[in-house]
Structures are given as structure tokens and as C-alpha cells.
């Protein structure tokens, strides 16, 4: 794990340690760039200051997965999860939710959301967000990050596999809708 102030993945800056949440809380990270077409990115923990920028991104993320647009719902959901920071043009985010591996008796995280604005894709933001999430997980002693994506989301699958994620082939997942 790089020390605060050192680049974790050039040109990406690490999340300052004082801004990391406790291991029992979820967190959001935001990829910031001066302009989406520039490669200069800063990965940092999102805060309440970023709420307006994130609402649009999160609403676009939800509609990508077939949900109806609802900025009020996006705002309410994100408002429950944010806390500190600066300004810039938000071009992407990821959220990690804490979990545990019973078998390994250890902390894990679910990378529940990853979104990069279409105009900023292919410029390293997704890779930088994945690296920051992995670095965070390592820093807090997690043994694994887990994510899922749509079967037809080939671009995301290529990104994940190209950055070292391994496709799950051992287990079958089920969901039970409760609402």
C-alpha cells in the first residue's frame, strides 16, 4: 500500500488515509478530472459536497440497468452514504459495501456499483476506481472484493478481467425479491 501522497497508479492519487471510513461503513469514491477527455484523474473518497455531481451519475447508472430515472431516489440513497471533500468535475464513482466471509472468518467488500460517464470511458477512470477499491480493501484487511455485472455487459467484463478479477464459476447466485 503506497504511503499517503504517493501515487498508487500513475497518474492516480491515493485516497488520503484520514478520509477513509471505518471498516463497518460503506463508502463512495469519485473519479475527478479537469475534463473527461483528459487522462489526469484523481481518485478520492466522495463527500456530501459531491452530492449534486453524484446524483446525475448514479441516476444514469441505475437507468443503465433498466431502472426508471429518479433523481430524488438517487439523491436520497446517496445522501445516506456520503460525508467530506473538494470540487471538480465528477466523471465516475464506485461504492463498496462491507461483508464477511464466514469460511475465511474475514472481512470482504462487495463492489456494488461502478459507473463512468460514457464521455469519459476508455480513459482509465474505471481502472483507477477498481485500483482504488482494491487498495482500500487491502488497507482495511479485507481478503476479497466481490462484484457482479450483467451477462450482456461485455465492456465491464473486459475491464474486470483485464484488471485481474476472476470470473466466478464455482457458485450460482440467487436473489429473493422482498419489495
Please describe the topology of this protein:
Elements: E1 27-33, E2 42-45, H1 51-64, H2 71-79, E3 89-101, E4 106-116, H3 125-139, E5 144-146, H4 154-162
Helix pairs in contact: 1-2
Structure commentary:
With about 180 residues, this protein is an alpha+beta fold. The protein has a single domain (about 15-160), classed as 3-Layer(aba) Sandwich (Aminopeptidase), CATH 3.40.630.30. The protein is about 25% helix and about 20% strand. It has four helices and five strands. A five-stranded mixed beta sheet has the order 2-1-3-4-5, with helices on both faces. A hairpin with a 4-residue loop joins strand 3 and strand 4. Helix 1 (about 50-65) crosses helix 2 (about 70-80). It is globular and about 40 Å long. The N and C termini lie far apart (about 40 Å). Residues about 1-40 and about 85 have low confidence and may be disordered.
Amino acid at each position: 500500500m503506497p504511503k499517503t501522497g504517493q501515487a498508487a497508479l500513475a497518474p492516480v492519487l491515493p485516497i488520503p488515509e484520514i478520509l477513509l471510513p471505518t471498516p463497518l461503513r460503506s463508502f463512495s469514491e469519485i473519479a475527478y478530472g479537469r475534463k473527461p477527455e483528459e487522462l489526469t484523474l484523481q481518485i478520492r473518497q466522495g463527500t456530501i459536497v459531491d452530492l449534486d455531481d453524484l446524483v446525475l451519475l448514479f441516476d444514469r447508472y441505475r437507468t443503465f440497468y433498466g431502472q426508471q430515472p429518479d433523481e430524488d431516489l438517487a439523491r436520497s440513497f446517496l445522501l445516506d452514504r456520503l460525508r467530506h471533500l473538494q470540487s471538480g468535475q465528477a466523471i465516475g464513482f464506485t461504492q463498496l459495501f462491507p461483508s464477511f466471509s464466514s469460511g475465511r472468518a474475514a472481512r470482504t467488500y462487495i463492489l456494488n456499483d461502478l459507473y463512468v460517464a460514457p464521455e469519459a470511458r476508455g480513459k482509465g477512470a474505471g481502472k483507477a476506481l477498481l485500483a482504488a477499491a482494491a487498495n482500500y480493501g487491502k488497507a482495511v484487511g479485507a481478503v476479497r472484493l466481490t462484484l457482479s455485472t450483467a451477462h450482456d455487459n461485455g465492456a465491464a467484463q473486459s475491464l474486470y478481467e483485464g484488471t485481474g478479477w476472476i470470473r466466478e464459476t464455482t457458485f450460482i447466485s440467487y436473489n429473493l425479491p422482498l419489495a
